[in-house]
Amino acid sequence: MTGVTTAAADSAADEPGTGAGHAAPEAGRSTRSFGAAETADAGPAGRGEERPRRQRGEQTRQLILETALRLFRERGYTETTMRAIAKEAGVAVGNAYYYFDSKEHLIQGFYDQNQAAHRVASAPVLAREKEFAARLRGVLHAGIDVNDPYHSFAATFFKTAAEPSSPLSPFSRESSPAREAAIAIFRDVVEGSTAKLDPELRKVLPELLWLGWMGVVLFWVYDRSPDRRRTRRLIDGVVPLIDRLVGLSRLRVLRPALRQVLGLLEAIREDD
After folding, report:
1. What gap in Å lies between CA 100 and CA 97, rounded to an integer?
2. Which residues form the domain of 18?
3. Domain boundary among 39, 70, 101
4. Whole-number Å distance between alpha carbons of 193 and 136
5. Could you give the CA distance from residue 134 to residue 163 in angstroms, rounded to a whole number?
6. DSSP count for the chain of H helices, then E strands
7. Do 108 and 27 fall into the same domain?
8. pLDDT tens string 177-236
9. 42-89 pLDDT, tens digit each
10. Contact status, residue 201 vs residue 247, Cβ threshold 8 Å
11. How far is CA 96 from CA 19, 68, 93, 156, in A?
12. DSSP 26
C-alpha cells in the first residue's frame, strides 16, 4: 500500500460540508484558522461577537489535530481515515474537512505544531549556553524529546513522507513553512553562539545543520533501543565533530575546499 488516503477518496462517501454549516474547503496547503481576515469587515459589535467564535474555531481545529495524531499512533497513518478522525473528535466529517482539506493537511498541521514545540523545548538551552557545541547538542536532544511520543507510527508514516512526490516530504513545497521554521531554530543556534565562523559558511550553516538533523531523524525513526539511546549517542558523538569542522572553517588553508563545498551546495539547490 502506498498508504495515503486523501480527501477525495473519503469525500465521495462523506459529502464534506453537509451539516457543517461552512463553505467548501480552500485548495492548497493552508489549513483553516479563524483570524483577522475573516472579521475585517465586522464593526465593533461584530468583532466582539466574532472573538468567542474564533476561539471556538481554534479549539475545534486543535481537537481535530490532536485526535488525528492519537489515532495515527493507535491505528497507524494509512489505516486512519478522515471519517474516523471526525467520529473520534465528535464533529461532522464536513467540519473536519473545513479545517483540514485532507490527511496530508493534518500532517502539515502536525509539522507546524511540532516546530513550535521544538522551539519552546530549545529555548532554555539557547538562553543558557553560548558555546556552539552545547547549543547544537541541546537543540538536537530537544528535537528528539518533542518527536518521541510519535515514534510508534513514525516508520509507517516515513514510508509516505519519503516519496519524492509526496507533499509530506520535508523537502516539498507544501512543507516549506515548517522547514523554514526548523532552519530558523538552527539559525538561532549559530547566531547566538560565540563561534568564529567564515562569513560565507555562516550564511548556509543553518540549512546544513537542518539537513544533518534530517539524517538524525531518519536514524531515530528506525531506532528501537530503549529511550532511543542509540540516537542520543549519535548526537553526542557527532556534535563535537561538527564543532571541530566549524572551527576549522576559518583556517586559510581550508578555504579553497570550503568554497568548493559551498559552490556544490549552491549548484544542487538550483532548479534544472
Report:
1. 5
2. 7-101
3. 101
4. 10
5. 34
6. 11, 0
7. no
8. 999 999 999 999 999 999 988 888 888 899 999 999 999 999 999 999 999 999 999 999
9. 455 555 556 676 778 889 999 999 999 889 888 888 889 999 999 999
10. no
11. 11, 10, 5, 23
12. P
